[in-house]
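Annex B. Sample input.
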Amino acid sequence: MELLTEADLSTLFSGAPHFALVPRADEELLSEDEYGFEPAVTFPFGGGVEGDATDCKPPGHPAFMLCTSHNPEEEEGMVKEVPSMGSFMGAEPGTCGLEYFLMLPVGDSDRDHDGYDDELDEGGRERGGGLRETRGGVRSVEVGYIVERLKELGSIWQARKRERKERDEVRVQAQGSTEAEDQEEEEEEEAEEEKDAPTSVDMYTHLFTYVLFPPTRITTDDYLDPYSLKVQIMALIQTLTNKVWLDFSKVRWRIKLGQILWGDSIATGTAEEEDGAEYEEWKASAKESERVWLLLQILLACELLVRIDSVLSDDENMDQRHGIVQSNQSLPESKEQLLRRFHEAGGAKVQWDILLARRWLENIRIVEMDAKLPPVETEREKSSFLAPPSRWFTFQQPLPEPSAPPTPNAQHITDALLLPRHTRRQVGGLLHFARKIRWPNVDALAQQAIARAPTTPASSIYDTPPLAGSPISMHSTNSYFPGPVPPRSKRLRELASDVPTLHKKKSSILTAPSDLGCGGWLSRSYLTGLVLPGEGLGHLIMSTLLENDPAAVEVLGYNANLYGGLQYMGKTWWSRYCIVGRVMAGCDGVEEECGWVGPVMGSGVVVEGEKENQTVGQIPDGWIDVITSPHLDSKTPRALEPKLIGICGDVRGKGWKQGTELKRHQFVKAKEAAAAMTADKLVEVQVKGLFFTLMEQQTEDDTDGDFQSYDAAVYFLVGLQLGEKKLHVLDLRYDVSFVAAWPCNSTGDGHLLHESFEYINLRIEELEEFKFEEAEEKVVVVGAWNPGQRVFIYAWCAQRGRSAVVATRGRSCSSCAIREAFATRLGVVVVV
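Annex B, continued. Sample output.
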C-alpha cells in the first residue's frame, strides 16, 4: 500500500512518452480552422529518447521532401498540410505515424468539399471586371509581361538565396563544411542575369504601375511610409483573397496545378460528349484562359513572397557589420507581429498562395528559346510521332499590341520555356523510387530518364502534351483526383451541382509514353518539382515512372487506379492507400517507398484438387480496384476529442485526475505479455497467396465504372514448424490503419503499467476464434516473430475491422504501446 511520490514517478516512468493534442502554434492565425490542434509527444518524467527518434521513416530521397511543408528551416512561417505527410510512412512496414493517423479524419481532404457556395459569385472571363472594381485590383496584364516578370522575380529570389548561402559558408568555413550536392545542382543551371536589389520605392512603382491599381488608403501604422513594402504586401494580400482565384487550400486544386500548366486540355470529355459549340468554347478556355489566369495568380503570389522575404530578412532589420538594429519607422514591428498581421489578413488561402510561390521560385526557371533548338514541327512530324522534343510550355498564340504595361518582342515572348532548376534531384528521386520497389526494366528506364532530362535549355527539352501520344485517364477511389473539370467560365457555376460526383468519380489526365519525351502533365509536375504538399507526390512519381515505361502501359492499359494496385509481370504493386498494400508491406522482401509497396506476390492461390492442383483467385494483368468498408474503430475521431487522448493514456492511470493518490501495487510489469508471445516463436505462418473475387453487384459508391472491382483475401498455412498446418483464409474487408508506436527509453523489461489499462494476450493460433465483444474495453496484445506472422496479424485486423498500434521490440516497450492504444482508442497492439 506504499504511496508513490513525484520522485518515485520520475524514477519509474523516466523515458515514458505522454501523448496529447495541443493547440497549434498558429491557431490564432487560422481562425477559420475549427480543428486547431496538433499531436504532441512529451516525456513529463524526464529521460526522453536521445537524438531525433520518432515514429516515422525519413524520406528516402531529397526529392521526396516536396510532399510536406513541415520543414521549418526551409519554409518557416508557411502553412502546413494536414495531416503532415512527413508522418505518412511509419517506422514499421505498413504503418503510419501517430500525427498522420490522428489528423487524417480532420485533414485537408476531409474538408475539401466545403465552401462551394462561396465560390459561385464570379468566374471565367468575367472576373477581370470584378477585380477592377476592388481596391488594389489587377490591371489588364499581357501574357508576355507575366512571363518576363516571373523570370525577373526568379532572378531576384535566386540572387538572395546565393547571398544567404555565401554568408552561411563563411560562418562554417573554419569547420571545412561543403555543400557538394548544392554545387552540383548549380552546375546544371545557366548563369542568370545579375540585377541590383530593387528598393522599396522601385517595387512600389513597378507594382502599382504595371500590375495593380494603387490602394485608395493605407493603414495608420504605415502612414509614415506610404511606399513601404508592408503597404504593397497588404495590397497583394487583399487582391489574392478575392474568390476568383484558385484556392490551393482545397486539395482538389493542388493536383490540377500541373494539369492546367501542361495538360493538353483541362477536360477529359470528347466532342461527341459535349454540345458542339459549347465544347469548343470549353476547350479553348481550358487551354488558354485558365493557364494565363493561373500564371497571373502565381505572379501575384511571387510578388507577395519576394516582398515578405525582404521585410523579414535580417538584412532589412540589422546592420551586418555592427549588429545594430536600424532605426526605421516603417518597420516598428517584430517578425512575429508582421507574420501575424499578414496571416490574419490573408488566412489559409493566401498562405497556400505564398507556399506555391516558394515552390515556383525554388524549382522553376523561365528561359528564352535558343536559336539552336529545333524549329516548330510540321504537321507530318506531329502525326508521325517522330518529331524531336521541343517545348515544355510555350505561348503559341499571337499577342495583341501591348497597352499597359509595355511588353518585349512578341516572338521573344512566344519562345518562353518552363524548365526545372533541380533536374538531377528529381530524376534521381525517380530512379531511387523505381529501384526501391524493384520495378521491372529499371535499367532501361534509367537510361531513358537520364537521356531525356534537360540539363540546359538547348540540349533536351520535353515535348508539349498534344504531341506525346494518346491521353489516358487516371481514376481513383479517393478525393485527390477530381473528375472532369470544365473551364473557368463554366466551372464555378457547375461545381455545386457536381459535388457528389466529385467525390465518387475522380479522374485526371495522364499521357501515354512515346518517343517524344517524358510523358504528360503528371510527369512534368514531378520532374519540374512543382509539387504542392500533400499526397500528390506519390501519385505523380508513379505516373512519371509509367509514362516513361511504354511496355508497362501497353500491358496495364490506359486506365489506372493510383489508390489501388496493379499486376504486371507476375508481381503486384500497391498503393499504401489500399488495405492490400498496408497488409502485404510486412512480407519478406517487400519494400515501401513514397507511398507504394512492392513487389508483392501475384494473384492466385495453388490448391490441391482431387486429380491435380489448380490455381484459384487469379486475375489478369492490369490495375486492381479493391473494395473495403470503413474500419470499426470509434466513430468519433480523437482529433475532435483533444482532451481525451492525454487523459486516456496517462502513465498514472486511465482517467487520472490531479490529487489522486497512487499506490505501488497499482502498477505492474507487462512482462506476462512477452511471456505469452514467446510460445508463438514455434508457430510457422506461410503466406500462400492473394485471392481476388470479382464483385458482380456493384453500387455507384463502390466503383466509378471504369474498373472491375474485387474483394481481396489472403491465404495462409498456420501451424507448428514440424507439425500439420491449417489453412486460414482472411478477407481484407475493412480499411484499417496500423500506427507505429512511439519509441520509449526504458531499461530491463520496460515501464510499469497502471492496472486501469486492461489488456488480453492472445497467441496467433487463438486469433481466429476470438471475439472482440469478449474484450469489452480491453486491448488485445499479440506478438509476431517473423514476416509471415506479421502479415497474418495485419490481415486478421483487416478482417475484423480493428486498427492497431505496432510496437518494435527494443524500441517501444509493451506498456507504452498499450497506453498509446488506449490514448488513440485502438483495440489491438502488435509487438514485432
